[in-house]
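Sample pair:
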Amino acid sequence: MKTAVYPGSFDPITNGHLDVIIRAANIFDKLVVAVLNNSSKHPVFSVEERVELIRESVPKIPGCEITVTSFDGLLADFAQEIGATTVVKGLRAMSDFEYEFQQALANRKMNHRLDTVFLMTSDKYMYLSSSLVREIGRHGGDISDFVPLRIQKRVLEKLSK
């Protein structure tokens, strides 16, 4: 069974994230979507809220077991704990690649069994980020094209506070 981990902040999950999850689920037998609990960031949504929003958003994909969890610490250690041999990362632009390439090399150095697969985002989501969703939502803008339909109301309620 090939297990991959798709780590991120997901504050909140966007349609771009969901696109990467669905595409990765068509490649791997098991996909763990892992919300990083990063104490240096100040997310709008708690770790528990982000996990819940992702669980509500992700569809069932035949042939792939998708789980959603959170983790602290190093991704390389977490991947080893869950038996993942691959990290999935979505790329929007060349600037994403430089950072993610550096992270991939560091993770491989810490866990020599860990490879990283980069999935190019679908062109309709190249501009999309969680920070863009937060900014638009805070000002009462329409986020319907940016986040999964099932969670739009909850995201807007949280962002408008």
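The longest strand covers residues 30-36.
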